[in-house]
Amino acid sequence: MSDLVPDGQRSSTARVVAPASPRKLAKVPFVELADGRLQGVVSSGSDIARVYVSSVAAGTFAYTCSTNNNRPCGGAYGGFCNHIRALIGEAVLQYGAGRVARYMRVEPVEADSPAQSVIAPMAQTRPVPGDKSAAASVFSRFLRQLAYLEMAPTTAPLPEMQWFPPTRAVA
Amino acid sequence: MRADLLAESVDGLDEALAAVDAFDEALATGLLRPQPAQAAGLAQLAGALAGSPLHANVAEAAAKAAEGAAGEDHLLALAAARTALLGSVHDALAARAAEATGRPAAEPPAADAGTGPAVNVLAAARSWLADLARCGWRGIDHDVVSGAAPVVSAMLPDPALRRLAALLDGFADELAASCPGSALESVPARRWADLWSRGMLLTLPGAAGAPAAGTATGRLLPLGVDLHEHATAVQAQVHAVFEPADGAAPLLVRASVSAPKPETIVGAGLWQLLRPHMSLLTAVSEGRAMDVTGMPLTAEGDLVWDDARARPGESADAFSTARVALPTAADPATAPLDRHPARIAVPVFLEGYAAAQAETGLTFTVAGTALPVDTDRVPLAGPLTPEAVAKSAACIGLLRWDAGTFRVQPLAVETAVRKKPVALHAGAWAGGTADKAGVKAEKAATDAAGVLRERAGRLLRK
Ligand SMILES: [Zn+2]
User: Fold this and answer.
1) CB-based contact (8 Å) between A128 and chain B?
2) What does the pLDDT average to over A139-152?
3) I need a labelling partner for A162 at 20 to 30 A (CA). Which of A53, A115, B117, B258 fits?
4) For residue A136, which residues of chain B lie inside 8 Å, CB to CB?
C-alpha cells in the first residue's frame, strides 16, 4: 500500500492499489500477489497445451513449479527454475518492483528497479521447495480470471464503481 | 458558476463527519474485543442519530457491539446508521453544488423500495462482511480476505447481483494487497468503512433498487465519458443532456456499461471490452448525438442502454452542448441508498478561469475562487493529459467532493494548439481511434486479450 494521498484516511475514493501495468501475456498469461505468495501460470516453450503453475512464498521464498497435470518441473530442484524467474520478472512488469519487493518482504527497492533487484535477494537465501498443494488453487484462480472474460457485460448502472476511479499512477 | 459557494463551509458537516470518523476508527480496530475508545466511537455514531427513527435500533446495536456481542443484524443497523449520516452529508453537499451551478432540479421520485429474492449468496456475503468487522482492518489476514472469492464467483453470472459482486471483488482485492493488516502504516478508514457499509446494505434483498420505471424518446447530446475501474471490473458512464421529443424540459442523464475483467485487461483494453455493448461510446468518439426511442430510464436519470433503441444522430459538439443545453437541463434526483458524497458527479462547464499549478496540484481560479482539479482521474488511454488541462481555456467536468473538498474532474478541455482551438476528450478513444498513440495502445490490448481468450478456449472447456 503506497498510493494513499496524505488525507487518505478521510478520503472515500483514494486508490489503494495502482492498476496493473500492461504487459505481453504470451509467456506468462497470469501472475498475481495473493494468498501470501507470488504465483501464476507460465506457458510451456514446447507444448502449447501445457502450462506450468509456479509460486514463491512471501518471506520464506519457498517455491513450487509443476505442470497443470501435477508433473513436477524438471528445473525446480536446486533453486528457482526458469519458469519461476520468468514469473517474477512479469510480476515486476505488472506491479512494479517496489510493490513486489514489499509483498515478498525483501529489502525495499525503487518502483522502477529491474526484476533482478527482486529475484537476486530471494535466490541468494537458497530457498527450498515449498508445499505443492498450492498449485491447484493457483490454477483455479487463473481459470476464475479467464472466466471473467465470459461474463455478460451489463448496461444497468453500478453506482458502487464510483468508489473506483481510474488513476494515472503506474505500477 | 458560483465557485465561491463551493469553498464555503457547510453547516453541520463537521459534526456529522466526526461521528462517521469515530465509528470508522472503531471498525478499523475490529469489533471482536472492543476497547473503551471503540465503545465511545460506537456510542458517538448512535448519538448522532438521536431523534431519528433509526435511533433505538442503532443504540441497541452500538451497545451490543461495544460488548463484543454484535450479531449480523446489529452490524446491519450500524451500517445503516453510518449510511444515513453520510446521506445527510450528501444532501447538504448536493444542495450546495446545485446552488453553485444554478440549474433546476428534477422532481425527486417517490421512494420505491425494490424487491428481490433472498438468495443464499447474499447471506454468504453478509457473513464475510461480518467477519471483516470482527477482525477490523488492522486484523485482516489472507484467510479472512480469501473468503470473498467463492461469494463473488457465485454472484458474477447473475447480472442482477453485479453491483454487490463488483463491490466485493474490488474491496477484497484491496484488502488482499494490504495483508497483513497489522503491518499497515495507515488505514484508509473512511474508504473501507464506506465499502463495508455499502456491501452490508446491498445484502438486503431488493436494496439494489427498483427497475427502470420510465422510458426516454428524444435526442441525446453527450458531454463526456467517466471511467471507473478496479482490478477485475470496469464501467464507463456517459454523461449527456437528454432533450425529450415531446418538448418537455431537458434532463441530465447517464448511460453506463460495465463488465467483469481479468486484471491484465487495462488501458485501451477497457474500451475494447465495453465498446461492443454500447453504441453510444462510438457516437462519443465520432462527436455525434444519438436518437433514442423508448429507452428505459430510471427515476435517477440512468438510461439502461439497449443498442436496438438507439441510432446515430447528427454531429454534436460537446462544447456547444455544454454552452447551450447544459445550463437549462435539470439535475436528476439521487436514489435513497446512493446518497453518499462519493456519488456526487455533477456536470459543469467552466471557462474564463486561470489555471495554476499549486503545491497540492492544479487549480482553476473561477471568479476569485481556486477550485482543485483532479487530473489523476483522467484515464491514461485517451488524448487528454494533465498538461493539456493545465493549458486549457474551457473545461467540461464533473464536480465532485472528497476528503473535505469540492474538486473538478475534467472530462474534456478546449485548448490552443498552434493558436487554433482544439477539443480534447478524456473518453475520445472509447469508440475507437485513429490517433497514432491510440492505435498502438489498441494493438497491444488486442494482443493481450487474444492470449487470454486463446487460453480460455483451451483450458476452460477441457
Ligand atoms: Zn519450472
Assistant:
1) no
2) 94
3) B117
4) none
